[in-house]
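Would you mind giving me a polypeptide sequence along with per-residue structure tokens?
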Amino acid sequence: MSERDECIFCRIADGKVKSDLLHQDSEVIAFRDINPLAPLHLLIVPRKHIPSLVELEAEDSSLIGAMVNVANWLAKDAGVAEKGYRLVINCGPEGGQGVPHLHMHLLGGRQLGSKLG
């Protein structure tokens, strides 16, 4: 079984696992987190399998911009852009990354704490 076949986010991107997709284009997908930490908790995921931020290659750096653009659009669409929201990318086990595929969390819909740890 390939790395892509084992990755839950790749399987969602490939349509092999059902998800509440809120956005999809040729580079990025976005869907609701199944264990939300805020009223709005979305995941923005590149279609390309990149295990973590530290493994992002120079030729893939535009993906981060694409992910942020999608996050901004989703925040506006959800009505949280004016009051504020948080974007988080966890990197590696000690950074809290639970799925070994680069992804960004969009959190909003309530007052978030000022401390991150």
Notes: The first helix runs from residue 3 to 6.
